[in-house]
Amino acid sequence: MPPTQPTANLSAVIKRARDVMRKDAGLNGDADRIPQIAWLLFLKALDDLEESREVTDPGYRPALSSPYRWRDWAADSTTRRSGDALLTFVNQNLLPHLAELSGSGAAGDTRETLGAIFRDTRNRMLSGYLLADLIDEVNKVSFVSSDDIHTMAHLYESMLREMRDAAGDAGEFYTPRPVIRFMVGRIDPRPGEVVMDPAAGTGGFLVEAWDHLVHAAEASEYPARERASLRGTLRGFEKKPMPYLLGQMNLLLHEVDAPKITRGNALTFSAADQRRDGVDVVLTNPPFGGEEEAGVKDYFPSDYRTAETSWLFLLSVMERISRSKTGRAAVIVPNGVLFDEGIGGKIKAKLLSEFNLHTVVRLPNGTFSPYTLIPTNILFFERGGPTKDIWFYEHPLPEGRKNYTKTKPLRYEEFAQCEAWWGDADRAEREETAQAWNVSVADIKNYNLDLHNPNRPDDLAHRPPTELIAELIDTEKQILGLLEQLQAETTGAQ
User: Fold this and answer.
1) CB proximity list for 324: less than 8 A, separation 6 or greater
2) Where are the domains of the chain?
3) Number of Cβ atoms within 10 Å of the Cβ of 491
4) How far is CA 349 from the centre of its chain?
5) What pTM was estimated for this model as a whole?
């Protein structure tokens, strides 16, 4: 059994692996290198975990059989193929076999997951000799003990952050871990509840929710029973192949038990189907600033049809939690969602009439730096409307700071003041402060939730220029969307 690997040793392994990949002509930057090592690490981790389960559970049926297990084709450097023979096996045998795998058809089935991952995965390396060198480095990583897995998970998350920083589609609008942790803590998912992220990305919300659920189960009166109830209770959707692979790797490393993550678009279901496949908790940061393809909006009622992604996800989340007695959600949205009065106004009317939008946390400028400068908010709402009043909390920047940056990001400890103000589950003890204020729905005009903090003067002269510019751009986009909608309606009426 390989020895336990401290973080320093694992970091050295990953560094050497990346040095090997830099020599290969088929890989161009971290956007290529990290996906390459990710699928190799995934297969190594899967084999380590399956080999361990085969020892402890004689009835366990592994997802892979010879010669496609890591132990068969990669583990032994003395008998392993190299050069062109290795490339031929990987490109013409291994990856096609993995892509064709299928199981029960249910999300969470390991064979189904492997098939979904490897249908969009390819070997990017051109040298079989360098690929063999890379495999040698991956073989130095152990996934046998929980300590090793925990250490590798943290290193893997640091690699994900680096790939997000490499820009491109792989890195847009990923959620900072402190924001995820804050949202999960306020929603407080409990063992037995089903938790979903319909825009799962690399699995940040689901991993944090799992850790929260495991802690709650272990602190309960019957920890074994409660821990068993967690199996299969995490669900998610991710339509892009690379985030899907990375997310599955992330969940595997965190030992999430039978997550049901679907490779596809969460919006391509009718409202009735989404209600029928409902969940107890939704935690998500859906894409915003983009548009869905034309056919997606047709899954939604005609009064709410729009191509704007954030609105469709908000509608979808409402449907998903509408039938659960404890249905609740935390959703990150751009500022435009608060002040839009077109289709957005109709969607907010539905939200306020059918759900209790009890809290809006307004995040400061730069929270999502460097991915976007658009100001963002977290909507906390639950089944059981209508909303009577809304608490707003304006999260302050640290003293002396004008915004967050990539090098000086938001830290989780900075949410302590908001968490203390939040109160218990019924939120009955809340009071107005310099950051918090309460608004009656009766006083809200045209469903505009972009409300000024009455306890703080609006000093435009001291607001960062980047924040003002981002708000102007967001406003112009909303106006353009309304004009395009009006144009379409006018054309259709002729």
Assistant:
1) 278, 279, 280, 383
2) 7-162, 179-199+266-489
3) 8
4) 27
5) 0.82
